[in-house]
C-alpha cells in the first residue's frame, strides 16, 4: 500500500475545500444574479416587442441584424449612442498606452481589443515578451521597496522588542502597511474616480479599484469610457500610472506577508514541508538521552529571560538587507 506524504494529504484536503468553495461561490452568484438577469431579459423582450409594435415598417429580422451590429461595436469599444460620436477615439496614443498597460499587467479589461488580424498577431507577440519582462521589472522594484519597509520593521523591533514577541511585532508591521495600502491604493483613488466619473458612486469606484489591483479585470467598469470624456488620453495615461504603482504596492504587501513564517500557510502543502518535518524528527530523536537541552525560540517572551528584558538587535544579515549591501 502506498503511503502518502503528509503534505500530499494536506493538499488533497485543500483540493476538496477549494472545490467546495468554488461550488459555494457559484451557488451564491447564481442565487443573487439569476433573478436580476431574468428581470433584465423580461424588460428587453418587452422593449423589443413595443418597438416593433410602434414601428410596423421594421421587420423582426432587420431589427435583429441591427441589434447584433450594435452589440458587436459596443463589445469592441465603440459606443452607438449620440450618433456614434465620442470626444476622442479609442486608439489614440493615451488609450493605446492604457491598453498596453492592462495587457502587460494581465488585468485585461477586454472592452477595447485589437480589431485587425495584424493587431491580434502583434498583441500575442507583445504579450509573450512583455508579461515576463513586466514580472522581472516589478520584482526588481519590489526588492528595493523592501529596504525601507524592513528598516521600518527594525525600528519597531528596537522600540517594542523588549515588550512584545517578534511575531506580534511583525503582525503590527504588516497591519500598518495594510491600512496604508487600503487608504492610498483603494479609498483615495475610489473617491477621486467617484468624483470624475458621472455614473459611478463610491462603491462602484472602490469595486473598480479592487478588481483592477487583484488583476481580475472584469471590464464592467473602466474609467474614461464615457463618450463625453474630456482629455481622455491624459485621463487614461494617469489611470495607467495608478495601475502600475498600485500593483507594485500590492506585490510589496504580499512580500511582507510571506516574510512572516507563521502566516505562510502555503508552505504546509509543499513537498519540502515533509523534509523539514523529517529533519525536526531526526533532531528530536538524536537529542534524546543526552540530558536536558534548551533551545531558545525566536518567539520566546523576552520578559522571561534571565537578567531581565532585552531589546531586539538586528543581525548583520538584517543590516545588510536594509542597506542593500
Give the helices and strands, then pairings:
Layout: H1 6-54, H2 60-75, H3 93-104, H4 117-160, H5 166-196, H6 202-213, H7 232-258, H8 272-287, H9 316-323
Helix pairs in contact: 3-7, 4-5, 4-7, 4-9, 5-6, 5-7
How would you describe this structure to a colleague?
The protein has helices at residues 6-54, 60-75, 93-104, 117-160, 166-196, 202-213, 232-258, 272-287, 316-323. With 325 residues, the protein is mostly helical. Helix 4 (117-160) crosses helix 9 (316-323) and helix 5 (166-196) crosses helix 6. The longest helix has 49 residues, at 6-54. It is extended and about 95 Å long. Residues 291-311 have low confidence and may be disordered.
Amino acid at each position: 500500500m502506498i503511503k502518502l506524504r503528509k503534505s500530499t494529504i494536506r493538499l488533497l484536503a485543500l483540493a476538496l475545500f477549494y472545490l467546495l468553495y468554488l461550488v459555494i461561490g457559484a451557488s451564491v452568484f447564481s442565487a443573487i444574479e439569476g433573478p436580476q438577469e431574468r428581470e433584465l431579459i423580461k424588460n428587453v423582450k418587452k422593449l423589443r416587442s413595443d418597438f416593433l409594435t410602434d414601428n410596423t415598417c421594421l421587420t423582426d429580422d432587420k431589427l435583429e441584424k441591427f441589434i447584433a451590429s450594435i452589440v458587436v461595436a459596443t463589445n469592441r469599444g465603440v459606443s452607438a449612442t449620440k450618433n456614434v460620436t465620442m470626444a476622442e477615439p479609442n486608439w489614440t496614443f493615451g488609450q493605446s498606452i492604457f491598453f498596453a498597460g492592462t495587457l502587460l499587467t494581465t488585468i485585461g479589461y477586454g472592452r477595447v481589443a485589437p480589431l485587425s488580424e495584424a493587431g491580434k498577431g502583434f498583441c500575442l507577440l507583445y504579450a509573450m515578451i512583455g508579461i515576463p519582462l513586466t514580472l522581472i521589472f516589478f520584482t526588481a522594484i519590489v526588492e528595493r521597496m523592501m529596504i525601507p519597509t524592513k528598516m521600518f520593521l527594525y525600528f519597531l523591533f528596537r522600540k517594542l522588542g523588549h515588550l512584545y514577541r517578534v511575531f506580534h511585532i511583525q503582525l503590527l508591521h504588516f497591519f500598518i502597511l495594510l491600512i496604508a495600502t487600503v487608504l492610498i491604493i483603494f479609498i483615495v483613488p475610489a473617491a477621486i474616480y467617484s468624483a470624475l466619473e458621472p455614473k459611478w458612486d463610491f462603491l462602484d469606484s472602490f469595486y473598480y479599484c479592487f478588481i483592477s489591483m487583484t488583476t481580475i479585470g472584469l471590464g464592467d467598469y473602466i474609467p474614461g469610457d464615457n463618450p463625453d470624456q474630456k482629455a481622455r488620453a491624459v485621463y487614461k495615461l494617469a489611470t495607467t500610472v495608478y495601475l502600475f504603482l498600485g500593483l507594485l504596492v500590492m506585490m510589496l504587501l504580499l512580500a511582507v506577508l510571506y516574510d512572516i513564517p507563521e502566516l505562510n500557510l502555503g508552505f504546509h502543502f509543499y513537498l519540502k514541508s515533509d523534509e523539514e518535518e523529517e529533519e525536526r524528527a531526526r533532531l528530536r530523536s538524536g537529542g534524546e538521552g543526552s540530558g536536558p537541552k534548551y533551545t531558545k525560540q525566536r518567539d520566546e517572551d523576552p520578559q522571561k529571560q534571565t537578567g531581565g528584558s532585552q531589546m531586539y538587535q538586528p543581525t548583520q544579515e538584517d543590516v545588510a538587507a536594509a542597506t542593500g549591501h
